[in-house]
Amino acid sequence: IKPAVQGCQCIAELTTMDQEGRPCVTNSKAVTADMKDPSGMDVPTQVQIKSWGKLEISYVPKVTGDHRLEVKVNSQQVPGCPFEFDVKENPVLCKHRLRVDTVDYRTEGYSGVGELDGPVGVAVDKDGNIAVVEQGNKRVQIFDADTGQSLRSFPVDGEKPLGIDRPLFVSVDESRDVMYVTDKSAHKVFAFDLDGNLKFDFGSEGQNDGEFQNPEGVTVDQAGNIIVSNAGNGRVQVFGPDGTFKRKVGTVQGGCACGLALTHDGHIAAAYDSAHKVFAFDLDGNQMFDFGKEGQNVGEFKSPEGVTLDTAGNIIVVSQGDGRLQMFGPDGTFKRTVATVKGGNPHGIGLTPDGYIAVACFAGHRIERYRYM
């Protein structure tokens, strides 16, 4: 039984074997899974065959606490039953002090250590810590992913104002110890070292090569190339490690390019919120595939915003419009809904090494973590 978290789809795996201890095929209809929550209420389960001799029992626990699972194959109880396990609360990393007397998120009191004012971008560094861009405080704050403790922070505007007004997404180049932050209003990308010192910036407002119209998403490939999406004109562009323009990768007419992620085969997955789709391009600019459409059914989007990948190459997307966090296969095939984000107006997402998805909730002024593995 894999670690279980309240409100998320969770997994228990079953391997069936013959009398000689070899994996054997079992019809999923021959397997029953009876689960009870702490109050004795039934928890719905679903059994699916995953591979030869391996089945998966999926469920979504509604409450925390001790649960019990009894599994039978051909009406015979599986050895070790009943299995008892604890469902954990879905952890929230941090949250500002809520004030019911105001609707302005820039209220005094959201700028302290560990507090957030309009978090938008999220990136996970090589140590598993979570870097968060705050639009309200114009700073980057680094959190311990396990405890939610603020480790350090730095202002993106520095001692000498850089013209940064609307910082958005962030990406960490682990091999070069550089952090890139896009700014939608300045039409630039800023490169900082991990202590917050500005190294360089590049870009200006315009439609020519190397220019931006409201840059949003940013990611880095293994060679250190910087890939940036444009909300204003739907373009995705590639720059060298020093910010020198290299090429234009893809353009979706009428689209608003937001979050970016690199697939395992080197393609670029870009969320286009106004098109309600995710497009995949190769580095030569050829569109490989796209998936999604506007709607609230499985596999559909309401303004997709953040994109990240897991170690298996699955593409994880969060929709800003309805808060749904969905997982798709490497080819864009819908796999499952992970959770619905509670904090409001989700933007950037990132995957921690221990299998949590960190989501920046702009309206809720917090980071939420959801276990999906």
Automatic annotation (TrEMBL):
GO cellular component, one term: cytoplasm
One Pfam family cited in the UniProt record for this chain: Filamin
Annotated NHL repeat ranges: 114-146, 199-242, 288-331
PROSITE patterns: FILAMIN_REPEAT, NHL
InterPro entries for the chain: 6-blade_b-propeller_TolB-like (IPR011042), Filamin/ABP280_repeat-like (IPR017868), Filamin/ABP280_rpt (IPR001298), Ig-like_fold (IPR013783), Ig_E-set (IPR014756), NHL_repeat (IPR001258), TRIM-NHL_E3_ligases (IPR050952)
Gene Ontology MF terms: zinc ion binding
SUPFAM superfamilies: E set domains, NHL repeat
Keywords: Metal-binding, Repeat, Zinc, Zinc-finger
Keyword Transmembrane helix carried by entry: no
Filamin-type repeats, residues: 31-87
Protein name as annotated: SMP-30/Gluconolactonase/LRE-like region domain-containing protein
